[in-house]
Amino acid sequence: MKNKFYITTAIAYVNAEPHIGFALELLQADVLARHHRLMGDDTYFLTGTDEHGSKIAQAAEKHGKDTQLFVDEIAQTFIDLTKKLNISNDDFIRTSDRVRHWPAAQKIWQKLAESGDLYKKDYEGLYCVGCEANKKKSDLEDGLCPIHKTEPQLVKEKNWFFKLSKYTGVIKEKIEKDELKIVPTSKKGEILNLLDDAEDVSFSRPTATLKWGIPVPGDDTQTMYVWTDALTNYISALGYPEDPKFSQYWPVDVHLIGKDILRFHAMYWPAILLSAGVELPKSIYVHGFVTAEGEKMSKSLGNVIDPNQLIEKYGVDVTRYFLLREIPSDDDGDFSFKKLEDRYNGDLANGLGNLVQRVATLIESKLDGELVYKKEVVAKEVGENPEIKEFFDESGYGQLVNEFKLHEVLGNFIFSRIAIANRFIDTNKPWEVIKNNPAEFLEIMTVLAAMIHNISWRLQPFMPETSQKIFAVFGDSGERQIQDNYKFLIKKGAGLFPRLQQ
């Protein structure tokens, strides 16, 4: 029986078109999903859009559009981005979908009510429209929301409240024992501290204030708080509670989110699930923010990076490679065009592209484009050459992926091996060897073909188009292991990564 792997991104908020931070999250989730498919796991990858809340209604009004029409248009830009980035998601959920999403959200609300965990009370406090969340004074910096740098509104209203405090002890224990694993561990400490001070939370707003959202079952004066609605997407997409897909894939293996929404995913969501009698997620992976040349991205500074423009200018796999390699998976990272072009020329053109070109050219010119693979030749080289032994040692790969260190997989695992392969050519000088020792030349080229196969196979989750191009150049079937006596047939095309003129 196959292992299952269910991974989700956070759903993107559709008050504006996609930015580079969400592109990074899509890519990170895509790598994990593709990796698990390669491992033979029954994989399900969900992304989608969060389409309710006062912020969206305000954005639609600002554009002079009907709210549903507005979210339809913006949601399409996110769907288009998943295609342009070559994201392998199995599903795309939209919270304005009254058929797929609303029934599950309202069912969860009813479960919370049945558990006695909802009560109505008058509320007076601070509310940040940007966060769609209530704020305590202790949450603010100089009276402003630390994320949106805006002053929260003072609101007075009667809302439904959820007994979050009833579940914080259980959640804390689950996180401490890694039964709900938080990655990286620095974020584990952060959420444990937040749980100590957790209070019951407002789970609805008056319909007069929040019209654009899911109605509270049995109370037409109230609309569900946007996070109550949005978090449910992870199970509504699986057809909770009755669809067989729900029992097949839940509990989720990885929720991949940005650090600004950790509170909602590691406090509110587990509490909702405990109240509703649903299993908790297995893990939450938390990534950081992307800055632009050291500055926070903002429209006022004119430094917002559009992922669509990157793809158009540099290509999808260059965009994928740079974001996944340059931005630490579990921390903040910085974007600059200079860094991107340096990585392109250094890593891709001079490193990977040059390696593929050199080896393909030698096989084409010296062996009439054909090379029969001999397993014992590679085994002999592995036994005699410590660096080649290191190259084919794959013991650290899976661990780095599972620890959410995707940047290290690319840097310390895959591209360090590309450097080993290029050194192997430079040290052995096959173009010289063939003049006096054709048999040794054949052995060198066999090892190099095996190296390129290994690199291409490992690159698939990160740069899927590039991997397929390399397999095509070598007539490689792309199977996990090369069969003995397999015949590589070279079909050279244009170079993979022509150098950029900076």
Automatic annotation (TrEMBL):
Descriptive protein name: Methionine--tRNA ligase
Purpose: Is required not only for elongation of protein synthesis but also for the initiation of all mRNA translation through initiator tRNA(fMet) aminoacylation.
Lineage of source species: Bacteria, Candidatus Yanofskyibacteriota
EC number from the UniProt entry: 6.1.1.10
Family annotation (CDD domains): MetRS_core
Protein family per UniProt: Belongs to the class-I aminoacyl-tRNA synthetase family.
Domain Methionyl/Leucyl tRNA synthetase: 131-359
NCBIfam families in the cross-refs: metG
